[in-house]
């Protein structure tokens, strides 16, 4: 038997669930980061809830956009608990268009949601969440890391467009241009530069109490297999650790053996399988 609590105040929600989420900051980096941003901007999301079992939180749910609900890393919930959650969720959020979270629970929950709302569940993306505490490898190329600036926009716009195409999150060139501007202005976008040419990029996002997440790691196809992405991520990761973060985390496409190999060589260790499921 579970208790399903829905919240209306984002500050009250954060106060209630933060200690649970911070038990595993890296695995919960998406939910923690989004929640912190909501609090800072004083914005109320579409949906916030916590699942309680035996007087303890077992799962946290957050929805900021119609297309998906973010699920935290869960504690032990039985199949009966998950089925009950599916029923309560369908009664509360209509329609449910997608879920993102730990693979096993999210897949099982999606099955019950599909049955209850009469939709078909499709796997949109499977990823691995990685966590790093210490950089292991040394730099391999003669490049250098530098912050991306406004004059780099034409290059970054194209890279953002290609990155989103390759990660199955397509967007228009106009939107890619806007996203590139946003990333540059935020100040966390860096690039690996070799002989005056940018060859790879990465950014840092969703800072939490002890962790920050690496994202938008991209190397154009003509510069791959040269060690540039490895050096870019490795050097940037070390700088983030030097700035005070205890850990860094990142998502990697489960079907991409190259990126998974590169991240493990740097020192990233897999901590959770994540899945995105969409309903049709």
TrEMBL record:
<protein>
    <submittedName>
        <fullName>GNAT family N-acetyltransferase</fullName>
        <ecNumber>2.3.1.-</ecNumber>
    </submittedName>
</protein>
<keyword id="KW-0012">Acyltransferase</keyword>
<dbReference type="Pfam" id="PF00583">
    <property type="entry name" value="Acetyltransf_1"/>
</dbReference>
<dbReference type="InterPro" id="IPR016181">
    <property type="entry name" value="Acyl_CoA_acyltransferase"/>
</dbReference>
<keyword id="KW-0808">Transferase</keyword>
<dbReference type="GO" id="GO:0016746">
    <property type="term" value="F:acyltransferase activity"/>
</dbReference>
<feature type="domain" description="N-acetyltransferase">
    <location>
        <begin position="143"/>
        <end position="280"/>
    </location>
</feature>
<dbReference type="InterPro" id="IPR000182">
    <property type="entry name" value="GNAT_dom"/>
</dbReference>
């Amino acid at each position: 038997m579970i208790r399903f609590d829905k919240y209306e105040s984002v500050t009250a929600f954060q106060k209630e669930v933060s200690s649970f989420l911070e038990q595993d900051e890296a695995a919960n980096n998406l939910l923690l980061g989004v929640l912190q941003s909501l609090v800072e901007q004083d914005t109320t999301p579409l949906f916030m809830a916590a699942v309680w079992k035996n007087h303890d939180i077992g799962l946290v749910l957050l929805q900021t956009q119609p297309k998906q609900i973010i699920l935290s890393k869960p504690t032990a919930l039985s199949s009966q608990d998950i089925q009950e959650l599916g029923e309560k969720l369908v009664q509360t959020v209509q329609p449910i268009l997608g879920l993102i979270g730990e693979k096993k629970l999210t897949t099982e929950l999606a099955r019950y949601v599909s049955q209850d709302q009469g939709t078909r569940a499709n796997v949109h993306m499977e990823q691995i969440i990685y966590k790093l505490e210490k950089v292991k490898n040394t730099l391999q190329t003669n490049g250098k890391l530098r912050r991306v600036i406004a004059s780099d926009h034409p290059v970054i716009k194209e890279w953002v467009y290609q990155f989103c195409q390759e990660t199955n999150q397509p967007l228009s060139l106009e939107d890619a241009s806007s996203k590139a501007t946003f990333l540059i202005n935020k100040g966390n976008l860096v690039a690996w530069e070799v002989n005056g040419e940018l060859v790879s990029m990465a950014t840092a996002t969703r800072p939490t109490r002890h962790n920050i997440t690496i994202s938008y790691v991209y190397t154009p196809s003509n510069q791959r297999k040269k060690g540039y992405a490895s050096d870019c991520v490795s050097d940037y990761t070390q700088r983030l650790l030097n700035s005070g973060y205890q850990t860094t985390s990142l998502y990697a496409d489960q079907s991409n053996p190259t990126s998974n190999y590169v991240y493990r060589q740097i020192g990233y260790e897999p901590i959770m399988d994540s899945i995105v499921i969409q309903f049709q």
